[in-house]
Design the sequence.
C-alpha cells in the first residue's frame, strides 16, 4: 500500500486527525451512562444529543464542500477540526443537559467541514487508480478511532470522570488541527477557476448522486443506532459492565477497519456499485435484526456484521459519489458533501425515533423496525447502473 502514497507526511496527519475525529464522534456514547446519572436522563436523552449531533454534521456538509471549492480543502479541514475541538472541550464544562445537546450540534457542524475535504485530500495524495483504496484507508482510520472512543473512553470515563475525558479528547483534536496546519501542502487553487453556479447545480441535481445519497441514509441510520446505542443497550438489557459493553460495541469499528480498505480495493477493480451496495445493505439489515435478541452471542455477531457492512457500503458509496464529476476536481468535494449531507441530515431523526420506540415498546421492536427501515432505503440502488471506468 505504501508505494501507492505520494505524500506520506500529509497522509499520516490526515489519518491521525481522522482517528481523533472519530474518537470524538463515539466517546459520548461510551460515557453517556455517567452523564445520564448526573443529569437524571435516560435513553431519550441519548437520542436527543445523537440527533442534534447528526443534524449538525448533515446540515454543514454542502456549505463545507462549497467553501472548500472556493478557498481550498486544506484550510476548511483545519477550520472544521478547530471548531469541533472547541465544542468537545466546552462540553466537558456543561452544567445543563440542553447545553450538551447544543454543543454536540457545534461539534457536528465542525466535523461536517472536515469530512469531504479529508476524502479529497487523501485521494489526492495516493497515485492514480488507487483512489478507492485511499478512501477505504481514510474510512478505516475512522473505524479505528471509533473503537478507541467506545472502549477507551468507557474505561477512561470510569477512571477520571466523563468531564476530564471529554476535555482530554478535545485537546487531542486541537493538536491534530495543528498537525494538519504543519504537514499539509498549501492548496493549489487554479487562478482561472471560478465557482460556476450552473455547474454546481448540475452536481447537486445529479440523479445517480441523489440515489447514492438515499442509500447512504439507510447506511448512516444503521451506523447511528448501532454505534451510539449498543453500549447503553448492553448495560440496560444484560447488565453488562461499562468496560465490557464498550469492548463489544467497539467490535463494529474493528470490523469496519478491516472492511474499509478491502472494499476500496474491490471498488477499484469491479465498480458494480448497485450490486455491491445492495448486498451490503442486506448484510446490514440482518445484523441490526440480530441485535433484537438480548443475548451476548447475538449482539456480538450483530456488531460485527453491522460494522463490516456499513464500513464497506460507505467506502463504495463515497467512492462512487466522488467519481460523479471527474472533469472538475473542485466539485469532487461538493459531490461527496452532497451525498454525506443528505445521508446524515435525513438520518438525524433515526436516533430520536429509535429512543422513543425503545421507551414505549422496548429494544426488540426498535431494533427490528430499524433493520426493516434500513433495507427499504437501500433497495432502490438496484435501479442504478454499473459505473463505467
Sequence:
Amino acid at each position: 500500500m505504501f508505494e501507492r502514497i505520494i505524500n506520506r507526511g500529509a497522509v499520516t496527519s490526515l489519518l491521525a486527525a481522522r482517528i481523533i475525529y472519530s474518537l470524538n464522534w463515539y466517546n459520548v456514547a461510551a460515557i453517556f451512562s455517567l452523564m445520564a446519572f448526573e443529569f437524571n436522563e435516560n435513553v431519550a436523552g441519548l437520542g436527543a444529543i445523537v440527533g442534534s449531533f447528526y443534524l449538525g454534521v448533515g446540515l454543514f456538509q454542502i456549505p463545507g464542500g462549497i467553501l472548500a471549492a472556493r478557498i481550498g480543502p486544506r484550510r476548511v479541514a483545519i477550520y472544521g477540526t478547530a471548531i469541533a475541538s472547541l465544542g468537545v472541550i466546552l462540553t466537558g464544562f456543561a452544567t445543563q443537559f440542553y447545553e450538551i445537546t447544543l454543543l454536540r450540534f457545534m461539534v457536528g457542524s465542525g466535523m461536517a467541514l472536515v469530512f469531504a475535504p479529508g476524502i479529497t485530500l487523501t485521494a489526492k495524495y495516493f497515485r492514480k487508480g488507487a483512489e478507492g483504496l485511499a478512501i477505504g484507508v481514510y474510512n478505516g482510520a475512522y473505524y479505528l478511532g471509533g473503537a478507541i472512543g467506545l472502549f477507551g473512553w468507557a474505561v477512561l470515563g470510569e477512571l477520571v470522570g466523563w468531564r476530564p475525558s471529554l476535555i482530554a479528547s478535545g485537546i487531542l483534536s486541537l493538536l491534530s488541527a495543528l498537525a494538519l496546519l504543519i504537514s499539509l501542502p498549501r492548496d493549489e487553487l487554479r487562478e482561472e477557476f471560478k465557482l460556476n453556479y450552473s455547474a454546481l447545480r448540475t452536481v447537486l441535481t445529479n440523479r445517480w448522486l441523489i440515489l447514492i445519497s438515499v442509500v447512504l441514509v439507510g447506511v448512516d441510520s444503521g451506523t447511528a443506532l448501532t454505534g451510539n446505542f449498543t453500549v447503553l443497550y448492553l448495560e440496560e438489557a444484560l447488565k453488562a459492565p461499562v468496560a465490557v459493553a464498550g469492548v463489544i460495541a467497539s467490535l463494529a469499528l474493528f470490523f469496519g477497519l478491516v472492511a474499509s480498505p478491502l472494499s476500496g480495493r474491490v471498488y477499484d477493480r469491479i465498480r458494480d456499485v448497485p450490486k455491491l451496495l445492495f448486498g451490503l445493505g442486506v448484510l446490514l439489515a440482518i445484523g441490526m435484526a440480530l441485535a433484537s435478541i438480548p443475548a451476548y452471542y447475538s449482539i456480538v455477531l450483530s456488531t460485527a456484521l453491522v460494522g463490516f457492512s456499513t464500513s464497506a457500503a460507505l467506502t463504495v458509496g463515497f467512492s462512487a459519489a466522488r467519481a460523479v464529476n471527474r472533469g472538475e476536481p473542485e466539485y469532487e468535494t461538493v459531490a461527496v458533501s452532497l451525498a454525506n449531507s443528505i445521508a446524515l441530515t435525513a438520518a438525524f431523526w433515526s436516533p430520536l425515533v429509535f429512543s422513543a420506540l425503545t421507551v414505549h415498546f422496548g429494544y426488540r421492536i426498535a431494533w427490528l423496525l430499524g433493520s426493516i427501515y434500513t433495507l427499504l432505503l437501500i433497495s432502490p440502488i438496484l435501479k442504478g447502473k454499473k459505473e463505467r471506468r
About this structure: The first helix runs from residue 8 to 39. The two ends are 22 Å apart (CA to CA). The CA atoms of residues 72 and 187 lie 5 Å apart.
